[in-house]
# Entry
Amino acid sequence: MNTPFEIKERRPRAVHFGPGNIGRGFIGLRLSRSGYDVCFVSRNEKQVAMLKSRGGYPVYIAGGDPEMLEVDNISAVHARNTDAVARRIVEAALVTTAVGASNLKDIAATIARGIVLRMQHTDEPLHIIACENAVGASTKLKKWVFKHLPADLHDQAHRQIAFPDSAIDRIVPTKKHDDPLAVTVEPYYEWAIDRSAIIMEGSLPEIEGALYVDSLLPFIERKLFTVNTGHAAAAYFGYLAGHKTIQQTMADPALLRRVRLVMQETGKMLAKKHNLDETNHQKYIHKILERFANPQLIDEVVRVGRSPIRKLSPGDRLIKPLMLAYDMGMETTDLISAIAAAMLFDPKLDQEASRLQADLRQQGVQHVIRTYFEIPSTHPLHQKIAARYREYVQKYRLAKVDALPSSFAAGQVATVSGFSKNAEA
Ligand SMILES: NC(=O)c1ccc[n+]([C@@H]2O[C@H](COP(=O)([O-])OP(=O)(O)OC[C@H]3O[C@@H](n4cnc5c(N)ncnc54)[C@H](O)[C@@H]3O)[C@@H](O)[C@H]2O)c1
Ligand SMILES: O=P(O)(O)OC[C@@H](O)[C@@H](O)[C@H](O)[C@H](O)CO
# Structure
């Protein structure tokens, strides 16, 4: 096969889309530590220039003993330069993403372009792993990518290109450093990868610290419906109570208790569905609550609660465990409270929050529950969510303006007081 690109006998190469918090603070770090050369695909020209000129960046570990790790062997290309990205994909053993699950479709055409070029030059396998907070993110990306591949290449692409699903866990807040490439992370991490989707043993160069598992679903559901459900509950309860950070929220005993109750509801469901050991799961919850409270991190509720429409979608961390728990005949009171709180989340600059608020005002709560959560009006949970939402609207509408989060500008306070006025009666 005609191979102008060097594929073998050098450090393995990876292409990573989205050098944001987790991209730099976890994926880039782990891959570079595992011996990969990592090329970041970024939408930010300044970031590309800095990554290219420095070839690395620092990661600060915010733990008992704070330390700094230097990430090296890094390069970068601009996302707009799709020719260059495609050439990098030809040379890579691994493509990873951390762009946000809703943005995967936007990178699919570029990845497809790289795959077409790659198949002209080599039959080496390529693994593509979407590191997003969603069940089956790589599988979803595969569907998007295949839409951009010519039909006559599908068979070969199915053989040569694998999309193992994965579950990724490390809290990486948004923190401003003097160095714009620097990132601060918690010490804990977990990266589980579906081994059954790997093309053949040895075809994916080792990722140090990754856990290769035969069945990913229990891992991703345990992570998403414990860490992320609990985190979302903390963000939404914290926001309504006027807290700015998750750490402040966790220091509030009443809210800590409510977050734990939500995690216990999902915990019972997860233990039954995936046959988990209940004692171990309680320890898992306890450890996560400690991680949320890490006093060395400042994680804003607006980051953790971001994109509430995504978080309230039927397959995500709130509605999915609610429906599963309900179907198993389990208690769902605290999950319903977290969902109602999410429906009042309206920080400045969160476009999904603004859209949700506009729909709640203009179309009403029942429309939102039907269309966004896909829970029909006839379902008993539909009425329960609507009732809790109305209760919260009353409670928080009457709250004093100065008790509201600092992100409430004057205009937004008017929006909040508009809740009950316009919400469906
Ligand atoms: N931060 C965390 O604690 C954490 C932990 C685990 C998983 N995740 C998941 O990782 C993903 C990224 O989260 P984050 O916190 O790093 O967000 P972030 O906003 O810090 O980073 C996202 C990056 O993706 C880039 N991006 C978006 N669309 C792109 C495109 N079309 N092409 C190239 N780049 C694009 C953005 O410019 C940004 O640099 C999300 O799915 C999130 O749920 C985050
Ligand atoms: O990234 P999101 O918006 O899906 O969720 C926000 C946080 O819960 C999330 O980023 C966590 O910090 C992370 O998933 C921890 O592993």
Q: What stands out?
A: The chain has 18 helices and twelve strands. The first strand starts at residue 13 and ends at 17. The pocket of nicotinamide-adenine-dinucleotide (ligand 1) is lined by residues 17-23, 41, 43, 79, 98-101, 103, 106-107, 131-133, 168, 170-172 (CB under 6 Å).
